[in-house]
Amino acid sequence: MKEIRKKELDKFMEIEGETKGVVFQTDAKYVLKKEGEEGLKKLEKRIKELGYPIDYRKGEALDLHPVGLRVISLLLIKDTFGWQDAELRRMGYVAPGNSFIVKLLMRFFSLKKFTDEVPRYWRMHYTIGNIEVINLDEKSKGNKKDGDKRRNSDVRKIHSRLLAVLANTSMLCKFA
Predict the structure, then answer these.
(1) Of 58 and 156, the one with more pLDDT
(2) Which residues pair with 65 in a beta bridge?
């Protein structure tokens, strides 16, 4: 585990924009699943020692937080548990499954309509940046159940890529 210095992390607090508290709840769910209660306590202790106001348990889903805290959360999760980038991508892949809105969109809308909603989904979580779907493959029709799996897979891939971008600090500056 490479020890991240507070001075390095503080730079991310200068990034303009905000994110909803639900992203931290999603982080906590994944950490609990992978590392258990002790793992989440270890992460919370580290966050507290560094002085960042991330409350994985009591934070309100709709409260706004500096977007820099999102980056800090991801970096500290990665560092605390010695995770590789691939594990953060898995975290991003699983995250949409926790979202009621994503589940609703996948259930009732076509793949085309769903991808039209992706930018709105982004704006529901972040006040900066945007996302655009640049490749839509509707060739794989299958039955309704297969289509649901396809939409589920697509949103998970999109979210996984977003987390990868947020975790890669050199790309974040270009992203906003």
Answers:
(1) 58
(2) 19
